[in-house]
Structure formats: structure tokens, C-alpha cells
Amino acid sequence: MGNKPRRLRVNGTASVSRDDPLMQRFAGAQLLVRVQARAIFPNCPRYIATPGGEGPSRYAPRPDYQPPEPAWKGFDDFKDYIHPRQPTPNGE
């Protein structure tokens, strides 16, 4: 996928356990979460906050601002699925 994304989004079904045998591998663990993944894909940085709370992501839409296209939209793996940027209902 070209430049590797720093964050992935995982959609699936999670279960939480207090007595999962895997807990012994994590010192101090009180619960263990297992996820049965349905879909895993790069997370669009649009809604990821800037570290340090310096304001919204540069990809987040806001009035009088045209955010840049995220790099992942140019990855070959997605070229057949990503449509060109469309005007939003409010004309921005």
C-alpha cells in the first residue's frame, strides 16, 4: 500500500473476559478484549486529532477551508474504489 498507514480501523465483534487464559501474558491485566475482525482497513486521518490537542486534523472539513486529499486515497489498492472529490451539500 505504498506508504504504510500509521493507524488501522478494525470493524468486528468484541468480547470482554475476566478469565481468558491469555490474560496471564499481560502483567496486571484485569480484563482481556478479543475481537473477531470483519474488516480491517487504513483509518482516514480526517478525524484523528492532532497530538497534543493543537486543534482539529488538517484533513477535517470546516468552513472556508479545503482539506488536502489523504495520501491513502492514492494507494494502488484503492484506486478502483475511491471516487474523485465531490462537492458537499453546502457547496464546500
Q: What does it look like?
A:
By secondary structure, this protein is mainly β. The protein has one domain (8-78). It has strands at 8-17, 32-42. It has a two-stranded antiparallel sheet with strand order 1-2. The two termini are 29 Å apart.
Features:
single chain; 92 residues; mainly beta; elongated
Summarize the structure.
This protein has 92 residues and is mainly beta.
Q: If you compute it from the alpha carbons, what radius of gyration comes out, rounded to the nearest whole angstrom?
A: 18 Å
Q: Within the largest sheet, what's the order of strands?
A: 1-2
The residue ranges in which pLDDT falls below 50 over 5 or more consecutive positions are: none
Label the overall shape.
Answer: elongated
Can you give the helix content as a percent range?
under 10%
Element string (H = helix, E = strand) = EE
Query: What gap, in angstroms, lies between the N and C termini?
Result: 29 Å
Q: Provide the structure class.
A: mainly beta
Query: Helix tally?
Result: 0
The biggest sheet, with number of strands, parallel, antiparallel or mixed sense and barrel status, is:
2 strands, antiparallel
Mean pLDDT level: 77
Number of DSSP E strands: 2
Please indicate the count of domains. 1
β-strand percent reads: 15-25%
